[in-house]
Amino acid sequence: MNFSDDALHKIAESMEPLSQKGVSRRDFMKFCATMAAILALPASFIPKIAEAISGKKPYLVWLEFQDCAGNTEALLRATKPTAAKIILDILSVDYHETIMAPAGHQAEKSLMDVVKNQKGNYLVVVEGSIPMKDGGVYCCISGKSAVDIAKEVCGNALATIAVGTCAAYGGIPAANPNPTGAVGVKEAVPNATVINLPGCPVNVENITACVVHFLTFGSLPNTDKFGRPYFAYGKRIHDNCERRAHFDAGQFVRQWGDEAHRQGWCLYEMGCKGPETFKNCPTVKYNEGTSWPVQAGHGCIGCAEPNFWDTMTPFYRRLPSVPGVSIETTADKVGAGLVAATAAGILIHGIGRALSPKKEEE
Amino acid sequence: MRAVEDALGITIPDNARIIRNLITGIQYVQDHVVHFYHLHALDWVDIVSALKADPAKTSALAQSISDWHNSSTAYFKGIQDKLKSFVGAGQLGPFANAYWGHPAYKLPPEANLMAVAHYLEALEWQREVIKIQALLGAKNPHAQTYLVGGMSIPIDPDSQNALNAGSIAFMSGLAEIAKEFVEKVYIPDLLAIASFYKDWAGYGAGVGNFLAYGEFPNDTVSNTENLWLPRGIILNKDLSTVHKVDHAKVTEYVTHSWYEYSDGNDKSRHPWDGETNYKYTGPNPPYEYLNTDGKYSWLKAPRYENKSMEVGPLSRMLVAYGSGHKRVQEVVNSVLKKLGVGPAALFSTLGRVAARGIETLVTAEMIPEWINQLAANMKKGDLKIHSGEKWDPSEWPAEAKGYGLHEAPRGALGHWVKIKDKKIENYQCVVPGTWNGSPRDASDQRGPYESALIGTPVADPEKPVEILRTIHSFDPCMACAVHVVDPDGNEITRIKVV
């Protein structure tokens, strides 16, 4: 049996609501409630979200450039909704190199069909950085450079979601000395509408929240100066951390596996970058709330911040200071200052050290 | 991690060994199943054909090969209805423009429907079982609890902030779910599908040399004689002799790679003396072709004693088989018997797919054993997770070098490090994708992908699904391009294998 594209598009014109596509109303409302919770919306918004996403499935293409497919893996771990629902029921994921069935010319056709037929009306997810140096030769797919593909696909899209730190800011490929001239999507395609969802990997629930935000309000979420939505990157890890009480009490881990470590004390002295990092890891966590780095006894490495590989290393060196213990702060106010301070490696004794019950050995 | 630990002479605690085994082990199980169902199955399974299946006959088929609970007529009818409504809605998403209806698809509609059902079930299953890694590693993908000298996940049966009895229960439950699905769904599906594609035991052999660094230390990491999956090399498809691995014999060529070496491009270099200097000589994009007479790849060409080597589950299973690993031998022999083929069938595209399944089964069986080891250590009060004596760089020598060998799901992975003045002086990784996807070397030897495609029949050059079967059987980590040209060199089609 073969399906011609014309036939497909004719059928697509008469789409029925999601509830008739194998998604039970109960599941669907549960999904909407989760989205409302992530977006910090009151329950009264649930019907509104449901209404917004009950139409034709929005087209989405997923591009991979200088990437490790870690964000694709994250997508497969999605639970709210599940990957199967995202791929089969909620979105029409017409191009995704890792999971799509066709290859070669047929795969390129899938991409071009969306770019041409849905111009200005589709979403793009980008995973991986884009090398700009030497005419873009460091990442070519079917003979086209990543930057040219991004210009065409993101430039004609309704909006682009840069998932993971590489697509947002260049990530690890952009680490000094950045041999390929790797940058994030917004820098490679300045005229594109881009939302950044950095992290290594992205927390997949933030992707769906972004999409639903758009469908519900008809606009993209408000973002900080690094292009990150406030609903997921509005607060510091430190300010929502489950170990914050130990920080305030001056109770710190000093050795991996010591009594303090086993009792879940603060990882500040082990180099935790939670005080400089803006993300909702402590509340959303990973793998359906199974864990996140601090819960597993390891400090935050600041992976959601621009240029983290250069500015957050050494990962195990204690932050020089923790300014602004007030939670009334955002990356716009303090982020750049903090990053610069770490990069310079200024060793000022932090507030945590001052409160520390153990005598300093340095 | 292992390379730095080797350079600094650090022995990790037993708990760190067990936790690393568990993280890697569940990764094999989850990754191999995702590869089979979500990245490779559609080369063998025709989704559209499943619409024509009789759900009652599908149920009979499923029940004849397994006692898995999801096997009723109503269940398969439900899956088929869902598929019909998906296709009927007209937005085929990732399944649009594929090769449905291609003559190379051999499964009856009922087998296709069964596979589609299990494609969906595996999507749910993989998300659950990998939580073992999320628990031990903080998140999946990208575990973040590895430290030089051990792990950062604390153990303490009397703490709510550490691995405790609750964690053992959590992991044991998931390990059971993992094993049951592999036994009752993956392996029966693999055998059922393979029985329709036995001709693929005759294609895709590759280079015939197999390298496995071995994995899952039974005691300390430095005791490479005591790995659960052994280290070794099989040459020229000869299973009677397993050769020893000497890391000093690993070198890399850049003759056909976009790099240059300071002492000439026709010599190879050991990773400790490795150089990574970009030298792009290809056409400016956009372009149609690369000139494969010159440099044509970003991959270096790794060689072992100047030979091309295949790495991955097939290599690991062959080395284990040849080394007398009892459980691997049992499962390999049983699979060969059920398919009615001899050991020579292993050296093929089908053999590669089967070996991945065999490894998944034996690894899923081992995971409860590692969980038990961790629990036993907890019971006797061994809570150590990290060896701290070299944590402070002031304890390091002025110069050090080391190497670490690991088996990632898709194959042998080696890291080589040189440390000088407490900083990395050189760090080189030789990864599975470069062994298998290697371009030619100075003496024009092909790598495994290139060799494996020789002799592959292609029914319709415009839709060469057969090429995808062989390339995907290696579990490639990247997009690569295969151009199909006629004997005069004119391009017929080109496929981007993704």
The CATH superfamily of the domain at 12-211 and 326-379 in chain B appears as Cytochrome-c3 Hydrogenase, chain B
Strand content of chain A: 5-15%
β-strand percent of chain B reads 5-15%
Structural class of chain A: alpha/beta
The figure for the number of domains of chain A is 2
The main sheet of chain B orders its strands as 9-10-11
Q: Provide mean pLDDT of chain B, rounded.
A: 95
Largest interface: A-B, 88 and 87 residues
Report the CATH architecture of the domain at 12-211 and 326-379 in chain B.
Orthogonal Bundle
Helical element count of chain B?
13
- CATH names the topology of the largest domain in chain A as Rossmann fold
- Alpha-carbon distance between the termini of chain B? 30 Å
Compute the gyration radius of chain B: what is it? Answer: 24 Å
Shape verdict of chain B: globular
Which CATH class of the largest domain in chain A is shown?
A: Alpha Beta
SS-based class of chain B: alpha+beta
Q: What is the helix/strand order of chain B?
A: HHHHHHEEHEEEEEEHHHEEEHHHEE
